[in-house]
Write a structure and sequence with these properties.
Chain lengths: 116, 153
């Protein structure tokens, strides 16, 4: 996935994964957060969140700061510009809608299979 | 290279006719898209979808209706303008049957025309909302179905 003038393949590969887009969205709304706090908002374990954060960190999409025993993360908005943010959200919306279409269609199918 | 679209695909364990119905029938649309939907299901027809929580209604223009394989519409054009290539995005649903299941592919294109990607980077997250300028309305409508984001906007 690419957008606008951003030309960094690795950057888009990092965003291309739906869980990481959701994670970014959560982190944007939390502002600053530890992996545990992020995991509370997502159907992911803290370990999975930490792995995704490492990928995002590698391409410079998040910053981390150690505070005592915790590592706190923030989104680097200079890397994720407006257009990219919007596209992240649009893509996340379609992920969600497709999952909802899937559940709705499969439920209808099950219901009709039983009747016949 | 610059691309201008988002593509998503999902496998659904239901026959293609049921998936078609889910995507295009107003009674079903309310299960994945908006709270309410009305639709004149033919090319050039209008559809309106409403999110109750936000009191937002979005008008879509149906472009292609080829059951059960292709359904497309344009949306996000400024209110009062007729949607075309210069002011809206095109959403296409492509369905294909595979062993009794269905592959559903959605492609939304035309974001550059909408002007979103022309904006330059802004330094803060708060700033990016303000930075949308004239496009903010479209964004709010776009994200109206997501509580968390709409609160932030």
């Amino acid at each position: 996935m690419k957008i606008g003038r951003v030309e960094d393949e690795e950057l888009w590969a990092a965003i291309g994964e739906p869980s990481r887009r959701q994670l970014l969205d959560v982190l944007i709304s939390l502002g600053e957060a530890t992996p545990s706090a992020i995991a509370l908002e997502l159907p992911l374990t803290r370990q999975a969140v930490t792995k995704h954060l490492a990928v995002l960190d590698r391409v410079g999409l998040v910053d981390s700061q150690r505070v005592g025993r915790e590592v706190r993360y923030t989104v680097r908005t200079d890397r994720l510009n407006e257009a990219a943010l919007a596209m992240v959200r649009v893509a996340t919306q379609w992920d969600k809608r497709l999952l909802d279409i899937k559940s709705a269609a499969e439920a209808t199918h099950r219901k009709r299979s039983k009747k016949s | 290279m610059v691309t201008n679209s988002i593509e998503k695909e999902i496998r659904i364990e239901a026959p293609i006719e049921i998936v078609w119905e889910t995507v295009t029938d107003p009674d079903h649309i309310s299960r994945w898209f908006s709270d309410k939907a009305e639709m004149d299901l033919h090319p050039g027809g209008q559809a309106s979808i409403t999110w109750n929580d936000h009191g937002v209604t979005e008008t879509l223009r149906i472009e292609t209706v080829e059951p059960p394989r292709l359904f497309s519409f344009r949306w996000l054009n400024p209110a009062g303008e007729t949607p075309d290539k210069s002011n809206s995005t095109l959403v296409e649903f492509r369905l294909s049957a595979v062993d009794g299941a269905t592959i559903l592919r959605v492609v939304e294109s035309g974001f550059n025309e909408l002007g979103w990607s022309e904006k330059t980077a802004s330094s803060t997250v708060d700033g990016h909302i303000a930075g949308w300028g004239v496009h903010t309305d479209a964004l709010i409508r776009y994200f109206a179905s997501d509580r968390q984001l709409s609160v932030r906007l």
